[in-house]
Write a structure and sequence with these properties.
Blueprint: E1 5-6, E2 31-34, E3 44-49, H1 50-85, H2 93-104, H3 108-121, H4 128-152, E4 163-166, E5 173-176, H5 181-204, E6 224-229, E7 245-249, E8 253-254, E9 269-280, E10 286-291, E11 307-312, E12 315-317, E13 326-329, E14 340-346, E15 354-356, E16 366-373, E17 377-379, E18 390-393, E19 401-404, E20 409-421, H6 438-443, H7 452-465, H8 471-474, E21 489-493, E22 499-503, H9 510-535, E23 544-547, H10 553-556, E24 561-564, E25 569-573, H11 574-604, H12 610-617, H13 620-630, E26 656-657, E27 663-664, H14 669-675
Parallel strand pairs: 17-22
Antiparallel strand pairs: 1-13, 2-3, 3-25, 4-24, 5-23, 6-7, 7-9, 8-9, 9-20, 10-11, 11-13, 12-15, 14-16, 16-20, 18-19, 21-22, 26-27
Length: 691
């Protein structure tokens, strides 16, 4: 048989892993903040809970209606005075009623209803409605304009930021201690990988921005892929030739726009990741050997006979305990198993698990290596992909089978990282670390002369750089990390009792699809880590702890993480609210000020003109005074006849009577001398100049 592959990693890593939330539930920060994507002024935002936002929206709508009354006071004053200045001595009752309505209506709606009522009452008289149509239309337009403005005031939040800030008292990164520290860390890392892979699968291969894909400021981080790039290993190592590699480059990802760390331009940084991969052939570093069951690695098989293994001598592994990197039992084709996928990584801080040979060792990059075994998979047609290549295997009976051409296919990837400050206002260009391995990228940050907040932003990215290497996109997931594995079909038992496993043919560039997917997992992991730091990691168990941020800029960034708008909260642009409230306040103030100021100017210039007189006498309380005086009540002793409110201290007034029609009763003859007297000094008389 072709035996199982023997991954040289702790078997505990392959126990079932449950997907669980990696961070605490998102808690939105309420209050005033600046969304720097809109600028310092326009970006000034207030975030409120929905119930508080509803109160603010209602207040704005009410305030707009109050402003409508102020605006109408200005309009009615201008129209009333214009008509009064053109008034003839023979104007009829309709004209005067229109003037009285204009003078006393408190709102455009009040004026509209009164004008319509008046027009209806005068309907039997020619041209009565035509004479009111302009005033009706003016009141209607004014009312409609402010009614629409009031309705649309609820949409003032749409002018605001489309993001919110999150906050948490658990801001920080996770750590483990205790007897099972290594296992806890490994379990956490694998869970984060599975979560990132699920996100990348649902959001990086589609244009969705809803649901899970709406968790981050960008549903996906962009990168550019390049085929036929230079082989990252020595000449002759890449199966596609010295220019047959595949490279993925994010370009500069800004901490603000890409990752949502809310900061002004001078406090931003960029991050860049470049990954280059290629299937490799290793020549004499791969050998077929026979090993016996005395080998402790085979005790679990219970097989006492020697078996043939495919051994890869790409560097010592298991912290130097083994002089080879990986081995695979060549008889696995008969075991009825699907793909096998194992991975190792080498970087300056993790040299123990695998120490690569010189050909795979890059001082300026982190090297990940992957071992793919096709095992018992039968393909429907030949595959010419460099990582999944097939060959015809003859059978004693039946047609030949398309099985894997190599016992083990090797894929090598290098990951390089770069952190930069943004160009300054003094035209100084961006300062960057070299494009190098993650450890050197972090250690070179001191050469960039960063601000405190730039240092804090770099620190947030640096915490996840180790786990963004391609190795960790696969680590712990085995064959489930392969998209090709999703195409596998498990059928009936074949001859010999093994399960029949088949797969459709794969395109020649399928290996590029696989590494592109793994790259997306790393990008999703970066997005996930930045949010997790701000919201605080969860599900740490009894051995987990949270390492809080350092005081200062690092602590401040805990409250500067943007996320898309969340239900239950609403944003308002402070600039938009200020403009609306200022405009409304100005209209209200002018509504009170314009008539008063104009009256004072006219009075100061001794202009007792007809418009001023009409504005005073058309007022409701003055009309009431004149009605009482006309029936003899208080005639000659009313005070403040030239003001808004006339007064008649301690004097009786006439009652309303129905006969001979609705009117005020006349002063009885016996009371006439007691209710009035001829005293011009107590009476204010306003005489127009033209009289």
């Amino acid at each position: 048989m072709r035996g199982v592959s023997l991954p040289l990693v702790d078997s505990k890593l392959h126990s079932p892993v449950f997907i669980r939330p990696m961070s605490s539930p998102v808690q939105v920060s309420t209050g005033i903040w600046t969304d720097w994507s809109l600028g310092q002024v326009q970006g000034l935002t207030v975030t409120l809970r929905s119930q508080d936002a509803a109160l603010l929206t209602a207040f704005i709508a009410i305030y707009i209606q109050i402003a409508s009354s102020g605006s109408w006071k200005i309009v009615q004053f201008i129209i009333h005075q214009t008509r009064a200045s053109k008034q003839n001595d023979d104007e009829d009752a309709l004209f005067h009623q229109q003037q009285i309505i204009l003078r006393n209506s408190s709102s455009p709606l009040s004026a509209l209803t009164d004008l319509l009522s008046m027009a209806w009452a005068w309907r039997r008289f020619a041209a009565s409605f035509k004479r009111s149509i302009v005033l009706v239309l003016l009141a209607s337009v004014h009312f409609a304009a402010f009614a629409i403005a009031s309705l649309y005031s609820s949409r003032i939040s749409s002018l605001s930021s489309q993001h919110m800030l999150v906050e948490s008292s658990n801001c920080g990164t996770w750590s483990f201690s205790g007897d099972f520290q290594d296992e806890d860390v490994q379990s956490r890392v694998i869970n984060e990988t599975i979560t990132a892979a699920a996100y990348a699968r649902g959001c990086y291969n589609s244009n969705r921005t809803d649901g899970q894909c709406g968790e981050y400021v960008n549903s996906r981080l962009p990168w550019t892929a390049y085929a036929n790039t230079t082989c990252p290993f020595p000449s002759g190592w890449c199966r596609g030739g010295d220019t047959g590699a595949y490279s993925m480059d994010t370009g500069p990802l800004e901490s603000f726009r890409a990752l949502g760390i809310n900061s002004k331009p001078s406090d931003r940084i960029t991050y860049r990741k470049v990954t280059t991969c290629s299937p490799v052939h290793v020549g004499l570093l791969e050998t077929l050997e026979e090993i016996s069951s005395s080998n402790p690695l085979l005790e679990q098989t219970g097989n006492s006979t020697a078996i043939t293994v495919d051994r890869l001598y790409l560097g010592a592994s298991a912290f130097g305990l083994l002089n080879y990197t990986y081995q695979y039992s060549v008889e696995s084709v008969r075991d009825g198993i699907g793909y096998g996928l194992n991975t190792f990584v080498s970087n300056p801080l993790e040299r123990g698990a695998w120490t690569p040979v010189d050909g795979l060792n890059r001082a300026d990059a982190d090297t990940s290596i992957f071992f793919v075994n096709q095992n018992s998979i039968r393909y429907d047609a030949p595959v010419n992909d460099l990582m999944f290549k097939t060959d015809l295997w003859d059978q004693p009976v039946g047609p030949s089978l398309n099985l894997g051409y190599y016992y083990t296919t090797i894929l090598g990837c290098i990951d390089q990282h770069q952190l930069c400050s943004l160009p300054g206002k003094d035209d100084q260009g961006a300062k960057c670390t070299p494009l190098t391995n993650y450890a050197d990228a972090i250690s070179n940050l001191t050469s960039l002369s960063l601000t405190e907040k730039q240092t804090a932003a770099c620190g947030r990215v640096a915490r996840v750089l180790k786990y963004m290497n391609t190795h960790y996109s696969v680590y712990g997931r085995g064959a489930s990390a392969l998209r090709a594995n999703e195409l596998v079909r498990h059928g009936d038992q074949a001859s010999g009792g093994a399960t029949l496993i088949t797969s459709p043919s794969l395109p020649e560039t399928h290996w590029q699809t696989e590494v592109n997917i793994w790259f997306g997992v790393g990008m999703a992991r970066l997005q996930q880590a930045v949010i997790d730091y701000a919201t605080g990691p969860s599900d740490l168990g009894s051995n987990g702890t949270i390492i809080p941020p350092s005081p200062g800029a690092d602590q401040a960034l805990c409250h500067e993480q943007r996320v898309p708008k969340k239900s239950g909260y609403q944003n308002f642009s402070i600039l938009a609210i200020s403009i609306v409230l200022l405009a409304c306040t100005l209209l209200i103030a002018l509504g009170f000020a314009v008539p008063t100021l104009c009256a004072r100017v006219q009075k100061a210039r001794n202009e007792g003109s007809r418009p001023r007189l009409a504005w005073i006498l058309d007022y409701t309380l003055q009309l009431h005074r004149m009605a009482q005086e006309g029936r003899g009540w208080g005639d000659g002793i009313w005070k403040s006849c030239g003001e808004s409110v006339p007064t008649l201290p301690e004097k009786p007034l006439g009652k309303y009577v129905l006969c001979p029609h609705e009117q005020i009763e006349s002063v009885p003859d016996g009371l006439l001398d007691r209710t009035s007297h001829d005293s011009d000094s107590n009476r204010e008389v306003i005489t127009p100049k033209m009289c």
